[in-house]
Amino acid sequence: MIKIAAPLLSAIALLLGWEYAVAAWDIKLFILPAPSAIGAAFLSAAGDLDSAALQTLKITWISLAVAVALSLALALAFSAVRLLELTFYPYAVILQVTPVLAVAPLIIIWVGVDNITLTLVIIATLVAFFPLLTTLIQGLRSIDKSQTELFKLYGASRWQTFVHLQVPAAMPAFLSGLKISAGLALVGAVVAEFVAGSGTASGLAWTMLEASNRLQTDKVFAALFTLSAIGVAQYYFLAWLEQVFTGHWVGK
């Protein structure tokens, strides 16, 4: 109960203090709107924010799905053939440490502004990909060699070993990495929308950019809080999935 009450009460206190400070110091709306003004802006722009949120979520989850598929394929290949990991893993590291803002203009040029959705997905996937790959490799390597030998001793096929040994061993690491990568995919989607530029994106990032250009700071905060709510909901949903599936595999 305290896990819910403590952050809720602190949030209420923060909002009340914020409301009072804006009124007491007569802070202009375009500098720092009061929570009540942000709430009013959210209600007046609810339709626009809903469609923008759906667009951002679409990019986020497509990118996360692509990152999962790529990282799973590469992790399995790397765990099966050591030479592949030694050859190609450094390139994954290079992609991770290279700032996405540095490569985003090249991606836009190569893909083209006519394929803006693909551009956004590629950029967000680059951000979300590496943590999943790393955690999957660690999970697959966490298998006890004696367990592998036991499966061989009983004549288990490659598929049986994969399903009954490798998947349960890697599942906790995968689900933990999935929480991280889901947040990064959301960040990547927002960054990609900012980089895409005027008129090419319709997600929450573009809504914030457009509102800030018009000094509609209350709408900027409304979009920002919407984005934060999506990130929090996404995190706790994946945390719940982690508990469910980890309990399932441990129980087995």
Q: Keyphrases for this structure?
A:
10 helices, globular, mainly alpha, 0% strand, 252 residues
Task: Explain what you see.
With 252 residues, this protein is mainly alpha-helical. The chain is 85% helix and 0% strand. The protein contains ten helices and no strands. It has helices at residues 2-24, 35-44, 46-80, 82-97, 100-111, 116-141, 145-153, 158-196, 204-213, 217-251. It is globular. The protein starts with a helix and ends with a helix. The mean pLDDT is 80.
Mean pLDDT: 80
**What is the N-to-C order of secondary-structure elements (H for helix, E for strand)?**
HHHHHHHHHH
Terminal residue distance: 30 Å
The number of helical segments is: 10
Helical amount among residues, as a percent range? over 70%
The parts where pLDDT drops under 50 for at least 5 residues are: none
Q: Largest beta sheet, briefly?
A: none
Number of strands: 0
Quick structural summary:
The chain has helices spanning 2-24, 35-44, 46-80, 82-97, 100-111, 116-141, 145-153, 158-196, 204-213, 217-251. It has 252 residues and is an all-alpha fold.
Write the layout of secondary structure elements.
Layout: H1 2-24, H2 35-44, H3 46-80, H4 82-97, H5 100-111, H6 116-141, H7 145-153, H8 158-196, H9 204-213, H10 217-251
Helix pairs in contact: 2-10, 3-4, 3-6, 3-8, 3-9, 4-6, 5-6, 5-8, 6-8, 8-9, 8-10, 9-10
